[in-house]
Amino acid sequence: MKTYNNSILLYSAMLAVYFFGGIVNAQNPITTFKGISDPHIRVFNDTIYLYSGHDADPNDKTWVMKDWRVFATTNLLDWKHVQTISPKDNYMDDNSEDCWASDASARNGNYYFYFSDRKRGIGVMKAKHPTGPFTDALHKPLVSPLHDPTLFTDDDKNKTPYLIYGDKTDAYYIVKLNNDMISTAETPKPIEIKGDAWKNAPEWMDKNYLFKYKQSYYLSWGNQYAISKNIYGPYECVDAVGTGYKLGEFAHGSFFWWKGQFYHIWCYYIRDGYKFRESIISYCHIDDNGHIVTDTNFLDEHFSNGVGQYKASWKKIEAEWYYEKSSNIEKRGLKNKGFRLTNIKDGNWIRYAEMLFENENFEFQLQLNSVQGKGFLEIRQGNLSGQILGRIPIDSDNLQKKYILKEIHCLKGKTDLYLTFTGTKDFNVALDYFNFLRK
Q1: Helices and strands, number each (H, E), in the chain
Q2: What phi, psi does 412 have (nearest 5°)?
Q3: Beta-bridge partner residues of 435
Q4: Residues 185, 177: contact at Cβ < 8 Å?
Q5: How far apart are CA 128 and CA 137, in angstroms?
Q6: Residue 401's closest CA among 358, 423, 432?
Q7: How does pLDDT run across 333-371, given as a tens digit for each residue?
Q8: Closest among 117, 114, 115, 113 to 96, alpha carbons compared
Q9: Lowest-pLDDT range, 202-211, 293-302, 346-355, 395-404?
Q10: Does residue 74 contact residue 82 with C-beta atoms inside 8 Å?
Q11: pLDDT of 282-301, one tens digit each?
């Protein structure tokens, strides 16, 4: 039944975007612009930038990609189209239809846009702003052949930059870049990937993406990934990041952090046999075993709503779907057992942005997994010092973990909701979920 529901939700949303240009207040697909593919997200100066390919026509049966698109948002909701990058502005042919996957990076006050010329090679353009205008830095490929660039900056003292690219017909390659970001510091090296997931991947498999979490490097493709302690590898296959919602071998995506939350964005083909895609986004988690978990359970319930906004009418608002939180609060859990927020102490807060209240009077329920010490939860509207909608005492001497506030009065409409915590020196709680019950 879950698979059937997934398909209905996804197909309905795709039809709405395709025929009507978008759903009112819908966030999946993430924009009303059609044909957004190969999405790579970068966060520069507290703004999220989406660097994407652009499929030309819903009826194309081969890849026709005449330019790249750049979108920007500061809230995950309003994705503004801020730039179109044309192959006329680099060494590619003026009428090229081979504008394949791209990525971006920043260094020394400049911004760099790396692009695929189909499988011929990867070029680089340069600008003073994340949205350009970009100019060709080399007038030739930076590396060739192969395609699909991922830019990665390590957290060592030199902030060493790397380019990852390629496909399984040859290999994924990694090469260190010089500080100028437009020249290589070494000969590209093939990346060894061990495990059945890579062994069984199609020969054409490209779509790489690389990020680092704690001391491990995560290399992904499609819906699979591998981990290594050394950026050059070898990498050991782990598992699928998730299932459903076209999150399979054709999914080209990226992962990113925003205000302490982790997200996964990927594209899918709208119709089998046609090269026309859209991109969707969901919350993502790294569990206690270091495994990636794309939250498709969230999409089961709230696909068209998307991330970054909430409704008080939902049956549950899981703690791990937060928009922003105090830095010391930790997301913990396991892939098959769910997630929670832990290490919530005196002075901490959690923000759920753009909460829609469709009614005014509610009963509020809070489910905690553990309680130490004594304290209070205050439910605030608008900001950290906003109107207090309710206050709940929390006490470890009371063995209950579900706390109920019988009467909470809210203003109708959208507002940021803050859960703020105060308590004794030893106060420490773990939050599972909360909900609002209509009175």
Answers
A1: 3, 33
A2: -65, 150
A3: 365
A4: yes
A5: 12
A6: 432
A7: 999 999 999 999 999 999 999 999 998 788 999 999 999
A8: 117
A9: 395-404
A10: no
A11: 999 999 999 999 999 999 99
